[in-house]
Structure to design on (181 residues):
């Protein structure tokens, strides 16, 4: 079981939501708003489920594919993560979360592949087209932006990492340098 941390977070959320949902449910019943009281009643039940440890959600989380970082001998380094691509950060036309994207680092190129919604996209940026690798922070994640000058590839390509230290080592092992944040 890899989800004890997730289980603890879900329990805390349940404990936070329960008193508010219960109070609103009672207030709605007192005011005669049955539709709203049903909604808050559902929130009370959901809170109780979360407090109980959310066993079904935890089993689903355990069955979900795991994020990995691995070497393919001395040929490549591969990391599972997420990806966002398009014209810019704000006008990205595509995205996929962990674990639906992979970054493959090799001596010759960086390749980001994504498989989501029955579509597969692969963006391969040859080493000669890589201008700069920079770290980008978001509120809950860290990504590696691949800045390049390749015409057939989206101008904005951001790979959300699952293990920054492993990715830094993998990139350095194949001769890529990153701009630090």
């Amino acid at each position: 079981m890899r989800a004890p941390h997730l289980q603890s977070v879900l329990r805390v959320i349940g404990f936070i939501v329960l008193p508010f949902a219960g109070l609103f449910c009672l207030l709605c019943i007192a005011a005669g708003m049955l539709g709203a009281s049903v909604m808050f009643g559902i929130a009370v039940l959901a809170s109780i489920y979360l407090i109980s440890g959310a066993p079904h959600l935890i089993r689903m989380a355990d069955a979900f594919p795991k994020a990995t970082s691995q070497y393919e001998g001395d040929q490549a380094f591969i990391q599972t993560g997420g990806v966002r691509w398009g014209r810019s950060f704000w006008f990205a036309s595509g995205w996929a979360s962990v674990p639906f994207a992979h970054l493959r680092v090799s001596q010759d190129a960086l390749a980001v592949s994504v498989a989501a919604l029955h579509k597969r996209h692969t963006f391969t940026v040859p080493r000669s087209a890589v201008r700069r690798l920079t770290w980008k922070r978001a509120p809950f994640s860290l990504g590696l932006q691949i800045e390049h000058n390749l015409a057939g590839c989206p101008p904005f390509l951001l790979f959300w990492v699952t293990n920054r230290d492993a990715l830094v080592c993998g990139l350095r092992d194949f001769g890529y340098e990153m701009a630090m944040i």
User: Anything to note?
Assistant: The longest helix spans residues 4-31. The beta strands are 69-72, 76-86, 92-106, 109-116, 119-126, 130-138, 141-148, 156-160. The chain has a mean pLDDT of 84. The chain has four helices and eight strands.
